[in-house]
């Protein structure tokens, strides 16, 4: 969503207070005060809502002194063919649920609450397998197990996800995070012409199990030094798994991808991936990996990034407080 003309910090603060109350109720299965369909709100099905502020919000409201140092669009990448229709906005709402019914209900209420303050620029539904669980990983539309290598953000790698006091440009960001959202179009027709060997060569993993081509199972670390009897590497120098591997311990982030299908009025279908990456500092953690992917990932043969945005994700708040208050008062 983008802020409407004339909106200032007072109006944004009012929206944040309303959103905080509505989100708190909706995620708990309690209808907001203005809800005309309270029965729908009673079954949230794991509903979560994440709120982010984009670079434009700080520019428009003159809040540069409260803007994280890393908050800016990603630099141009050689593989990008970006559509401004899916570019960065002033505000972001990410809504997730195991059921599309409470999700759609929450979206209507939260977007309606912003009327006169912010206007939607784009909406993109995405999906994951509702049966996903331990041992049943998410697969994107290429059939690739996606998001295998993850930091332990609940314990030893928490500082890779959450903004800490030492790295916060303003105290109001402590406990927050960042989101890099890349909308990636996938050429399914061309991918389906490729044989199994070519696909696994490009990914660097066994498509059936998600295990690296160097052996083991999905969780087995890939051996990037393994070579064939010919002396060639087992994992191609441009395979996705090699290009995405961190070159330093901090080049890791929480991957949370979603598939999408965009159906045109003429019946054409655009298939793709909403690649959502959460981290404390995208310039330090995400950007080096993204540059390597853009420069030489074999999957670039079948994929094109068509949307790109970066957001500062607001920290949560205690009961009685509201999202973003420390940054606006």
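-> sequence recovered:
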């Amino acid at each position: 969503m983008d802020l409407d003309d004339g909106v200032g910090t007072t109006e944004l603060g009012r929206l944040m207070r309303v959103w905080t109350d509505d989100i708190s109720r909706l995620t708990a299965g309690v209808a907001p005060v203005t809800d005309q369909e309270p029965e729908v709100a009673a079954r949230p099905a794991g509903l979560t809502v994440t709120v982010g502020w984009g670079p434009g919000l700080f520019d428009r409201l003159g809040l540069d002194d409260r803007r994280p140092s890393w908050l800016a669009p990603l630099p141009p990448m050689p593989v990008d063919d970006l559509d401004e229709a899916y570019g960065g906005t002033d505000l972001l709402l990410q809504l997730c649920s195991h059921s599309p019914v409470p999700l759609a209900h929450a979206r209507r209420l939260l977007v309606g609450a912003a009327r006169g303050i912010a206007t939607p620029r784009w909406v993109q539904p995405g999906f994951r397998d509702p049966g996903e669980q331990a041992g049943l990983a998410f697969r994107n539309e290429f059939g690739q197990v996606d998001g295998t290598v993850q930091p332990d953000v609940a314990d030893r790698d928490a500082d890779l996800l959450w903004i800490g006091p030492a790295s916060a440009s303003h105290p109001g960001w402590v406990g927050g995070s960042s989101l890099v959202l890349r909308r990636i179009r996938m050429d399914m027709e061309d991918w389906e012409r490729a044989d199994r060997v070519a696909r696994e060569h490009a990914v660097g993993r066994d498509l059936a199990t998600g295990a690296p081509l160097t052996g083991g199972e999905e969780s087995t670390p890939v051996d990037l030094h393994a070579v064939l009897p010919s002396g060639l590497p087992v994992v191609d120098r441009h395979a996705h798994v090699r290009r995405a591997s961190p070159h330093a311990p901090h080049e890791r982030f929480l991957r949370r991808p979603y598939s999408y299908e965009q159906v045109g009025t003429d019946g054409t279908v655009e298939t793709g991936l909403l690649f959502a990456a959460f981290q404390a500092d995208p310039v330090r953690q995400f950007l080096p990996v993204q540059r390597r992917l853009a420069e030489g990932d074999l999957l670039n043969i079948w994929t094109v990034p068509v949307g790109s945005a970066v957001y500062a994700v607001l920290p949560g708040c205690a009961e009685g407080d509201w999202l973003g208050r420390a940054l606006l008062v």
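The mean pLDDT is 96.
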